[in-house]
Amino acid sequence: MRNSIFRPKGLSILIAVFGLAFVSAASAISPWDWSQHPWPTGSLAQTYHLVEDGIDVTISVSTTTLENPIPPTLPTFASWDGLSPLATCTPVLSPNLDGAGSPSNRFGTNLDLGIVYDPAASRDQSVLIDIKFTQLNSGPNGPAVAIPNFKFEISDVDWSAGGVECIRHTSQGFRRDQVVITAMNHGVEVTDFSLSPSPANTSPTFLIEPYNVATAIVGSESNTDEKGTVVVNFSSTPVTDVTIIYNEAGYDLNTNNDPGYRGIGILGGMTSLPVELMDFSIE
What we know:
The protein is mostly beta strands. Helices cover about 0% and strands about 45% of the residues. A hairpin with a 4-residue loop joins strand 4 and strand 5.
């Protein structure tokens, strides 16, 4: 007979008495502090070895195609920011830590991971952010570990008007963010989770419909505040893999085929309740 119970973290024991065996395994991550987990600017993947929690967390960023944006002199997840004349143009590089005291401070109020993207005109490309939980020191391809109570924020889901691209001096259309959340537990799709505005957000810049999609409201902007912050909460539902799909909801091949560069902050306030799962068997 097999059963499972939860108990406070830090009481890990191994007991074998009269055929009663207890085996404990870490299955949660402590509150995440990006200031303690460096992300090299421009890196597209990082694996963090959480020794205390007994797991690896791998975060990777990619696109739906391999095509670089225009101009090709910049990395894929970068853009030019500024106005004419050309001398005021500066590159915006990502992924990077975003928040007070970080390389940039553009998205929301929490320290998070900033993602900026500006694909070429007539290219309706999405950004894919994958989070994987695996056994400690096994890396992204190691045995999956299911994490309960996983929760995180996505900031700056909003809309902005069009403008003039700094380097090429070409007109760009309006931008409308959309994020879609999908998840798995050992290969089985997870749908029992919620999206909601941040508790501090009384006038969100997005609508949630259906349950796993947040799309910016036309005309609503968020600027280093919580108006564009979405809270993703899996509650007690365990997950091994989570994907954030970052779309351009305003793209239209005929009327808006070159939106301005877009950006969001991801995985701010990332937590999972510090508990440990203890499995026991009676033999």
